[in-house]
Amino acid sequence: MTQGDAPLKLAIIYYSSYGTNYQMALTAAEAARAEGAEVKVLRVRETAPPEAVQSQGPWAEHAELTKDVPMATLDDLEWADAYLFSTPTRYGGAASQMRSFFDTTGGLWAEGKLANKAASVMTSAQNPNGGQESTLLTVYSSLMHWGCVLVPPGYTDPAVFAAGGNPYGASVTANGQPIPEADHEAVRHQARRLVQFGRKIRG
Ligand SMILES: Cc1cc2nc3c(=O)[nH]c(=O)nc-3n(C[C@H](O)[C@H](O)[C@H](O)COP(=O)(O)O)c2cc1C
């Protein structure tokens, strides 16, 4: 089997306090697997102090629910042909937990091992105009430093025109309600497109 025949290896790496980005990661994984990818869903390490997590019921419950989700490692970054990151918007940027993970990648970056991977980014925010795009852009900036080939959704599917659609990357409004089906569809489209272009980029 040549590399071109092998399934695309996709690492979906997320941070989530309350479950939104976790759900987005699961939806993306299902769509990417249906598109033929080999997928790992991985969470980044919680860096907030335990007392902060325990001080909020929903945060503590979600941490307990997902404690067995494997933690993203540098080996996973090396393993993957493509990356899909999902992070909450925090004051108009990525969650510091995600930034902390990025800050562990200098060694791989120096060896050129993060280059030439297809990559895309998703986010959620509480407000419909709460800084989603600045979050996505800051993560994409780091991915450019890595030498990734960016695969944003663009306006390439009707799903992008729905509320959670965004040409920069799926942007779910996290308002305590279940994620609407239209937003899941925007996530699915982004994941499928990443797999399709990831295969071309990997060759
Ligand atoms: C410290 C902090 C900062 C936040 N900043 C923003 C923000 O700038 N804009 C916004 O719309 N929501 C903001 N939020 C809400 C988060 O985006 C929301 O909790 C998140 O999208 C939920 O994702 P999760 O369920 O995966 O944790 C903030 C939340 C926290 C805790």
Features:
single chain; 203 residues; alpha/beta; Rossmann fold; 7 strands; binds flavin mononucleotide
Gross CATH architecture: 3-Layer(aba) Sandwich
Any idea what the shape is?
A: globular
Task: Count the E strands.
Answer: 7
Annotation field: number of helices = 8
Query: What structural category do the secondary elements indicate?
Result: alpha/beta
Mean pLDDT reading: 97
What name is given to the CATH topology?
Rossmann fold
| Percentage of residues assigned to helices | 40-55%
The top level CATH class name: Alpha Beta
Strand content: 15-25%
Bound molecules: flavin mononucleotide
Task: Summarize the entry for a quick read.
The protein is an alpha/beta fold. The chain is 41% helix and 18% strand. The protein has helices at 20-34, 50-54, 57-65, 74-79, 96-102, 106-110, 132-146, 181-202, and strands at residues 9-14, 38-43, 82-90, 93-94, 118-125, 149-150, 171-173.
